Amino acid sequence: MVALPMESHHCSCRRKRRHCLCCKELFEPDPRIKDKQHYCPRDKCLTKRQRLNEKDWRIRNPDCVAYQQEQSRKWHKARPRYSQKRRHDHPDLAAKNREDTRLRMQKMRRMFDKSKSIAFAKVRFYNEKEMSLFSYSAG
């Protein structure tokens, strides 16, 4: 039996890098996942991926979401003063909730700044005949 010479097998040790769908940065996907990894391992990106998966699940399972909402409604209806009692019994939790809400609303206001909205933006028109500039406020 003649032994054939072993061909030099160059394995592609360097994996193909991809752009993360969230942060757009290059990353090396986990080799166990193959071509299915679209988000890098950063916490921010993984959280975004998880939220999108949850949103997709809710869209695909509207009956389950409606059932969960109904169960929640029944639970709160059976305990009408639960939230008030909890806030009274745990003032530290109430203070933390107020602070968290304040910060969350600040973040929302920054994201949806009305001064940058098209409806509230001042649109400037140039009047060529008079060679003057005047403002028009939409809305």
- Low-confidence runs (pLDDT<50, min 5 residues)? 119-139
Helix content: 40-55%
Beta-strand percentage range: 5-15%
Lateral arrangement of strands in the main beta sheet: 1-2
Using only C-alpha atoms, the radius of gyration works out to 28 Å
Query: Treating each run of at least 4 consecutive H or I residues as one helix, how many helices?
Result: 4
Give the CA-CA distance, first to last residue. Answer: 89 Å
Number of E-state strands: 4
Q: Main sheet?
A: 2 strands, antiparallel
- Content-based structural category: alpha+beta
Oligomer: single chain
Give the rounded overall mean pLDDT: 81
Which H/E pattern describes the elements? EEHHHHEE
| Shape designation | extended
Tell me about this structure.
- Strands 1-2 form a two-stranded antiparallel ribbon. A two-stranded antiparallel ribbon has the order 3-4.
- The protein contains 4 helices and 4 strands; from the N terminus they run ββααααββ.
- It has helices at 43-60, 62-78, 82-89, 91-111; strands at residues 18-19, 26-27, 122-127, 132-137.
- Among the domains are: 15-60, no CATH class; 61-103, no CATH class.
- The radius of gyration is 28 Å and the shape is extended.
- With 139 residues, the chain is of the alpha+beta class.
- It is 46% helix and 12% strand.
